[in-house]
Write a structure and sequence with these properties.
By secondary structure, the chain is an alpha+beta fold. The protein is about 35% helix and about 20% strand. One of its GO terms (biological process) is protein desumoylation.
């Protein structure tokens, strides 16, 4: 028996020595391991093997032929993990210094309420922290399912943005110096001072530098770049104390050395303004947040256009109006219809077509019902062509398309689609250009005569004769078309364009504009068939209906994009002029006044809803 025990002891010793050597190797290197469609980045110890994640299919605005051939491939979901280090990280031979933190005075700290359950029961499973967005310095992401998991040793964040989808980040508590949070600021937020090591990993796998340096850098002198900010969701006052206590006690139990505190509304607003605007006072100054009570959240039916158009608004729909919440499609569609029927004149309504918020999603979302033996453009068009079977959008001057991508709202205004030139117009334009070139060429070749002084003079008779013929050619081939196309282009009020209104300027929207042009071309060809050989077909391309990104006011937070697109359209019709310059910020100076956005706009939408409630029985 003793021999067996000694043998077991020696085996265990050998295994322990082996693991010790592996751990020692791991602590001195950053590692990147691809495993089961996850990119695991570790700093300090070996990454544990993870269970395979569900396959992720990336949806694209423009699924061209190349994409079709690879439609069964899955995308890699990166996961950034920074776990507890056994030894301090060394950079250039020197230990990393701790970054400076905000100063929190005793008067800024809120007393933590009593927890109604035992802490041991609370920490048995991950805690779900309701959060709509996360900002690493100046790099912003939306939170998938609006939930961050607080786990044994880390925050688990499943994120997405306009430039990167399906990003999983695991932020270890050991990489956090301080965690301050409040549900009284606008928006409710948690402010995290992370260690530089985590920021280095972030920069390595999510390149995000600009001309001023790294956009997320805890050592930066720019306050906007230094912290991680969780944009928390509002909680009802009846559960606010329980939520505060749960967050505090969970983190304290899991990471007792981290500086954790709940801070006052004024201090939280100060920190938010510093992290967002790098100054103490900003657009997010303290006001009473707009939060609906339980009585306000009763489901209701609202009617527009003499109740011929109705919306059933649920409790969840109405909760979107609370401060810090993203507006959903039902609220967006209701308010755009309200603007259409009650803010626009009869003439403007006749000139405008309003798409609903599902149109672009339907246009670009692959379906099991897709027809496979046609081009990608026709496939996209086939998904939505029935939506417009009774509408001639080319009789309209304005087409309004609200779009939601990666939990961000923006809106597109297509103006004067019917003024797009025809093939005949474009051929005439090309002929004019050729005539101009030929004219210039002929003029250059006209015999120059040297007078007695050596100066060159032109032969009067030849020059006059040739120039008269060239001008006549221009008149006969181009003058009529100049009236139909070129003069319209010179008149800004009738120039076709795709105008993008984006309150975050979250990356270029070239593909969106290209997809909409493609849709317009196919809709035109479908609705306006022409005889074979006709040159009257309108051409929708980048030259005939260009893209313009409007220099509109930008939202000061993570969640007000829906409010801004509603205000953009409302203001467009209120301030429209024939000479409007969409690329000048001065054009929009009074479009989104401070007192018309944020809390005031949310309250305005709620008041409009109440004014249009359909009485029961109607």
């Amino acid at each position: 028996m003793q021999v067996i025990l000694n043998l077991i002891y020696k085996i265990l010793q050998t295994v322990a020595q082996f693991h010790s050597s592996v751990f020692s190797f791991a602590t001195s290197h950053y590692q990147s391991v691809v495993h089961n469609h996850e990119l695991i980045i570790t700093n300090g110890q070996m990454a544990k093997k993870c269970k395979p994640q569900p396959e992720v299919i990336c949806l694209s605005d423009d699924d061209d032929d190349n994409n079709d051939s690879n439609s069964n491939q899955t995308s890699v979901v990166p996961v950034i993990t920074s776990v507890k280090q056994a030894t301090p990280a060394i950079v250039n031979g020197d230990p990393k210094s701790q970054t400076s933190d905000w100063i929190i005075h005793r008067k800024d700290i809120i007393r933590i309420p009593e927890l109604s359950i035992k802490t041991t029961d609370l920490i048995k499973k991950p805690y779900e922290l309701s959060c709509s967005a996360v900002r690493f310095g100046m790099v912003e992401f939306n939170v998938e399912s609006e939930v961050i998991l607080m786990k044994d040793i880390e925050f688990e964040l499943k994120l997405k943005s306009s430039f990167m989808e399906n990003l999983n980040i695991k932020l270890a508590y050991s990489d956090i110096q301080s965690f301050y949070f409040s549900f009284q600021s606008q928006p409710p937020a948690a402010f995290i001072q992370a260690k530089p090591d985590f920021a280095e990993l972030f920069a390595k796998f999510i390149p995000s530098s600009d001309e001023h340096g790294k956009q997320f850098d805890p050592t930066s002198k720019d306050e906007k770049r230094r912290r991680i900010v969780f944009c928390l969701k509002h909680v009802d006052s009846s559960v606010e104390n329980v939520t505060i206590a749960s967050i505090y006690q969970y983190l304290k139990a899991k990471s007792p050395t981290t500086n954790i505190c709940c801070i006052s509304a004024s201090k939280a607003q100060e920190l938010y303004n510093l992290s967002r605007f790098a100054k103490l006072s900003a657009l997010g100054s303290i006001t009473t947040p707009f939060v609906l009570n339980d009585n306000d959240l009763t489901s209701k039916t609202v009617g527009l256009n003499n109740n011929t158009i109705r919306f059933d608004l649920s409790r969840d729909d109405l909760m979107c109006l609370n401060e810090g919440e993203f507006l959903n499609d039902n609220i967006i569609d209701f308010y755009l219809q309200y603007v259409f029927y009650e803010k626009l004149s009869e003439e403007d309504r006749q000139r405008t077509y309003l798409f609903n918020s599902f149109f672009y999603t339907r246009l670009t979302r692959k379906s099991n019902d897709d027809i496979l033996n046609i081009s990608p453009a026709e496939r996209r068009y086939s998904r939505v062509k029935r939506w417009l079977r009774d509408v001639d959008i080319f009789s309209k001057d304005y087409l309004i398309v609200p779009i939601n991508q990666t939990a961000h709202w923006y809106i597109v205004l297509i103006k004067f689609p019917n003024y797009v030139p025809t093939e005949g117009d474009l051929i005439s334009d090309d002929d004019e250009e050729m005539v101009d070139k030929r004219s210039n060429s002929k003029k250059a070749k006209i015999g120059d005569v040297t007078n007695g002084t050596g100066d060159k003079t032109r032969s009067k008779s030849n020059a006059q004769s040739i120039e008269i013929v060239d001008e006549a050619d221009e008149v006969s081939t181009g003058n009529e078309n100049l009236t139909k196309t070129d003069q319209n282009r010179k008149d800004r009020s009738q120039t076709p364009a795709i105008i993008l209104f984006d309150s975050l300027h979250a990356g270029p929207k070239n593909r969106v504009a290209a997809t909409l042009r493609e849709f317009l071309q196919l809709e035109y060809d479908h609705k306006k068939p022409l005889p074979m050989g006709s040159s009257g077909r309108k051409i929708f391309n980048l030259d005939t209906i260009p893209t313009i990104e409007a220099a509109v006011p930008q939202q000061p937070n993570y969640f007000d994009c829906g409010l801004f697109i509603l205000q953009y359209i409302e203001s467009f019709f209120a301030h429209r002029s024939p000479t409007i310059n969409f690329q000048s910020s001065s054009t929009f100076a009074n479009w989104c006044e401070q007192n018309s956005m944020g809390t005031s706009k949310r309250k305005q939408i709620f008041d409009v809803i109440n004014q249009h409630v359909v009485p029961k029985g109607d």
